[in-house]
Write a structure and sequence with these properties.
It is built from 17 helices and 17 strands. The chain has helices at 2-15, 25-42, 56-63, 65-80, 111-126, 155-171, 182-203, 244-249, 253-271, 288-291, 296-307, 327-339, 356-359, 371-374, 381-396, 409-417, 434-447, and strands at 45-53, 88-93, 96-105, 130-132, 135-137, 141-148, 177-179, 207-216, 221-232, 236-238, 281-285, 314-319, 343-349, 366-369, 400-404, 422-424, 432-433. The protein starts with a helix and ends with a helix. The model has no long low-confidence stretch (mean pLDDT 89).
């Protein structure tokens, strides 16, 4: 009896996850091979669901691994409640689970709706709040789905397909589901090539700085926002919306931020003795990825020192989302850079958290009203109220304000009536390359 018990223990350790008591990857793969073989014999269809918890890492980091383990056990129990007796729920590792729906239907007519119905049930169950140690916690899930019929593909190919579908679900905003199709593979290969190209762009100086003037109420150019363009050797000039989100996702954005900052500082240094550029202030966008680096302050100060520019001419534009995760650490970093003369602007104000409780604490000098509000300020009364309120609030807090996306004289006139002191947009100039910006500033000075 003792040897039988030992064999059972060894068997469970080999084929089951010790935390959730669900089948592990090894047993899952074995059952999938059996299901595919049965599907071949019976001419039936099945589905594979790859499930990943969207913000599980956040729970582990804030509440500890014990809380994370309890959530995973809950996830396993909820998954088991969603499936039939003959289906398999497995934990593949970490916060990843797989549900195999064997012998789902006998024809392909209802296959996708049936698989989708089960997946939506799973999604609904997993997206409900979890009670962990007396506290509610919301941890949504994303699901990638692939279908199988017989043994046309290998088990590894099926898992790869579900992984691609899962990636598509996460890329679509998370807390959702996506089916695999061949275009996903093509998109993945294109993204892999894009990442390689981005690394080459950094190494081979394919990026170019563009400058969009920032104006005061008198119509004088007081600075510019530094924007980035990519001069690809084959694809030509690529706009930031076509590569910046991917650079953020693949972990290259911080290196790109540092490159832009270095080039902006270099340009300020070159302008230091040239009228009318000697007093121009350049605003540089900083991503959350770069700002949250432990060495961010030292990196920025080193870049400025190496280029020999006046730090008082540098304004770093930060979004609200880069500041709210650890407000005390953010304030500490900003204060250190502020003491060196660097200014801060809160970008896209009004589109994020906009909490006055932390806004009062941040050592910022400027609020930047997002173009989404400026666009309809003359046509939508709600947007007009929001903009007027933002300007008034900033003034009461002793902050400068700049409105971006100003495109019409009517918008400018209304913003001026609200007391907004700064503007940026196509009404004044589109983003210009270095040569174009220099010409524009010189022309503007002669006309002013």
């Amino acid at each position: 009896m003792e040897s039988i018990g030992r064999c059972l223990t060894i068997n469970r350790l080999a084929y089951y996850d010790p935390l959730t008591q669900l089948p592990n990857r090894r047993l899952m793969m074995d059952r999938l091979r059996q299901a595919m073989a049965a599907s071949q014999r019976n001419d039936s269809y099945g589905a594979l669901l790859f499930i990943d918890m969207d913000n599980f890492k956040e729970l582990n980091e804030t509440q500890g691994h014990d809380a994370g383990d309890k959530l995973l056990v809950n996830v396993g129990n909820r998954l088991m409640s969603c499936v039939r007796t003959g289906d398999t729920v497995a934990r593949m590792g970490g916060d990843e689970f797989v549900v195999m729906l064997a012998n789902l239907v006998d024809t392909d007519v209802d296959l996708v709706p049936r698989a989708e119905s089960v997946a939506e049930k799973v999604l609904f169950m997993l997206n409900q709040p979890y009670l962990i140690d007396g506290r509610e916690y919301l941890c949504t899930a994303s699901i990638g789905i692939t279908l199988f019929h017989g043994e046309q593909q290998s088990t590894e190919e099926l898992l790869k397909h579900t992984d691609l579908a899962l990636y598509q679900a996460k890329n679509s905003g998370r807390a959702t589901l996506r089916f695999f199709d061949a275009s996903m593979q093509q998109a993945l290969e294109a993204r892999t090539q894009l990442k390689t190209d981005l690394r080459c762009a950094l190494q081979e100086a394919q990026f170019q700085l563009y400058f969009q003037p920032q104006m005061d109420a008198s119509g004088r150019c007081v600075g510019a926002e530094v924007l980035l363009r990519w001069q690809h050797p084959l694809r030509g000039l690529i706009q930031p919306n076509d590569f910046i989100p991917f650079a953020e996702e693949c972990g290259l954005i911080a290196l790109i931020d540092y490159w832009v900052l270095g080039e902006a500082c270099q340009q300020l240094s070159a302008w230091s003795t040239q009228d009318p550029f000697a007093g121009v202030r350049l605003a540089v966008n900083i991503s959350a990825s770069a700002f949250m680096r432990a060495s961010f302050v030292e990196d920025v100060l080193a870049i400025i020192k190496a280029r020999g520019c006046d730090p008082r001419q540098i304004k770093l534009e930060l979004t609200e989302t880069s500041l709210v995760h650890n407000i005390n650490e953010a304030i500490g970093k900003m204060n250190r850079l502020k003491s060196a003369g660097i200014k801060f602007s809160l970008d896209d104000f009004g589109t994020g958290y906009s909490s006055l409780s932390y806004l009062r604490q941040l050592p910022i000098q400027q609020l930047k009203i997002d173009r989404a509000f400026v666009r309809n300020v003359t046509t939508e009364s709600g947007d007009a109220v929001i903009v007027r309120t933002m300007v008034g609030m900033a003034q009461n807090l002793g902050l400068d304000v700049i409105a971006e996306g100003v495109e019409t004289e009517a918008q400018l006139s209304l913003l001026k009536s609200y007391g907004c002191p700064g503007y940026q947009g196509y009404l004044f100039s589109k983003p210009l390359n270095l040569e174009g910006f220099v010409c524009w500033v010189n022309d503007a000075q002669q006309q002013h």
